[in-house]
Amino acid sequence: MTILYEDNHLIAVNKAVGEIVQGDKTGDTPLCDLVKAYIKEKYAKPGAVYLGVAHRLDRPVSGVVLFARTSKALARLNDMFRNQEVKKTYWAIVQGAPPKEEGLLTHYLLRNEQQNKSYVCPAGKSGAKQAVLDYHLLARGDRYSLLEVHLHTGRHHQIRCQLAAIGCPVKGDLKYGAARSNPGGGISLHARQVSLTHPVSKEALTVTAPVPEDEPLWGILAPTL
User: Fold this and answer.
1) What is the mean pLDDT, run by run of 10 residues, along the chain of 225 residues?
2) Which of 110, 111, 112 is nearest to 121 (CA)?
3) pTM for this model (two decimals)
4) Which of 92, 148, 163, 217 has its CA 20 to 30 A from that of 104?
C-alpha cells in the first residue's frame, strides 16, 4: 500500500490492481481496512479508527483513492463529488487508436446488474443514463495508445464502456472486448490524478498516482509523463 497524501482530514492511497476499496462478498481484505490499520499503528490510536469512503474504483483498476479521516471531511467530500467539484483524471492504454486525437464522447448507458456490465443503448430506452467524457491522445504505439480521460458524469463502467464503443477497448478488459487479458487479471485503466479544493483548509490540492510498475506498456507509452 502506497500513501500518496495525508493530513488530519484526508488520506490518499495508490490502489493496486486487484484490490477492493470496501468489503464485498469475496471476503478479501479491503483497502479501507488496510488504511485504518496503517493509521492506528502510525498514530498509536486507541479504539476504532474512523475512515470515510468518498468514492471507489473498480477492482481491476489502479490509481488514486481518497479517504476522509473525519466526519466533517467526509460530508464535504460527498457534496463535492456529488456536485462534480472534484476533477478526476484517468489514463487508459487502449487497443488501436481513437478516430480523432481528442474528442467529447456522449452515449446513453444501460446497466445490467446480473452481468455487472453496462451497454450503449438508444437515448429513449427505459433506465438509460447519459454518459459524457472527454479524452485526448497522449502517446501512440504500434498496437496500443495512451489516452487521458476526464469524466463529466459518473456512470457504471463508463470509461470502459464508452471507449469500447468507439473501437478502443481498454487493454486487458475482456468484459468490454479486449483481445486478451493482462497478467494478474487487471485492466490498463489508471486513476492518475485527483484535484480538488481541500474540504477543510480550502487550499488547492492535487494528488497524482504513479502508474503500475508491472505493466511494461506504461513505461513505453508514458516514459516522460
Assistant:
1) 96 96 84 96 91 94 97 96 94 96 98 96 94 96 95 95 98 96 93 97 97 86 70
2) 110
3) 0.94
4) 217
Residue whose cell numbers read 499503528: 41
Of 154, 133, 46, 137, nearest to 92 (Cα)? Answer: 137
Residue 152 to residue 105: CA distance in whole angstroms: 10
Query: Does residue 58 carry a catalytic annotation?
Result: yes
Alpha-carbon gap, residue 117 to 193, rounded angstroms: 25
Ranges assigned E (strand) in the chain: 2-6, 10-15, 52-53, 62-68, 87-95, 102-112, 117-121, 129-140, 144-151, 189-197, 204-208
Active-site entry in 58, 134, 142, 173: 58
Contact 17, 184 (CB under 8 A): yes
Q: In this structure, how many other beta carbons lie within 10 angstroms of the beta carbon of residue 49?
A: 17
Q: 205 forms bridges with which residues in the sheet?
A: 196
